[in-house]
Design brief:
This protein has 16 helices and 13 strands.
Length: about 375
Amino acid sequence: MNPTDQLVVGLNGSALLSPLTGIGQYTKSLAEHLIASGEIDLNIFYLARWSKEIRTEPFPSLGRIKTFIKKVVPHPYLVSRALQGWKFHSGAHDRHVSVYHEPNFLPLKFAGPTVVSIHDLSWIRYPETHPKERVAIMNRILPFALERVQHVLTDSEFIRREVISEFGVSADRVTATLLAPRAMFKPRDAMSCAVSLSKHKLQQRSYFLVVGTLEPRKNVETAVRAHAGLPESMRRKFPLVLVGMKGWLTSRLEGELKAPVERGEVRPLGFVTDDELADLYSGATALLYPSVYEGFGLPPLEAMACGSPVITSNVSSLPEVAGNAAVMHDPMDTDALRNAMERFIDDEEFWLERSAASIKQSALFSWERCAQETIAVYRAAIAA
């Protein structure tokens, strides 16, 4: 496509400045595929400056800066938004942005067409799993923002229906663009995984994996309790490995973890690189994902793409993502989760069957398709 025919898009890339969790991964993958399409002149806004480059490393001092601002500035989030809005507006004007995409819920003010991504309604459905100030900000800003945006993107049909029902947005203004596993998530053999597994003192097919920010909605306590219900010899041979940054409201989880961590039966690894994560997925006996509520659920899909069987909840968007490949259960049913873990240990044929089904299910999702559907929404927003 001739560069002069490209659509000039402004994308808020602030989620790329911190270690990447779900929204950051969405923003990065979508940005890469928008650029690769050749149809988009992508301009990315990073808090106070604009760039055409996708940031690949977090801003090292951002956490400390945020902590300092919270201590000395009244209403720090609203002050930050006001300053960002000023920089955003001037840059968008100078770059002749045709449509603005906010990938992280709360759009800044923009004079032209605006598209916003809403990934879930967890602060409404499970407000107790969020800090109170976050719930207050979402309730204060988002309903009014939705009145002025041209279109809403969601990660799943489940969330699309929730947005329409909860906010009264007309159905033709809400589109589900399903996410996908990134290219590095594919099956890796034992030799390929050996360095990463050795680093963490793990054996191939001899551990269960939990991936996600440690926060209440992920329901990690249920995974810990299910693992604790396994026979002692099994717990030692198949430890529970936790991958993800510490989030919020974790005091109860930390209490649950103290004893099994001391015994070496549970191993928190914190944040790991994407390459390590792909190794950990590929080498796991199964991924455990007992979340009580998800807008999509990238870890189960990434694990399935690596050929790892998945045991996950049967609620919210997770059945939409997992299809018939995963073993699903009520998120609070510890016994069902423990029984599924034991079956994956004892039944080799069942493991192989679910591994093959997982790879097949993950192949149904594509970032190229997500990008093309997003571009179609941009064009519709401009036309509207």
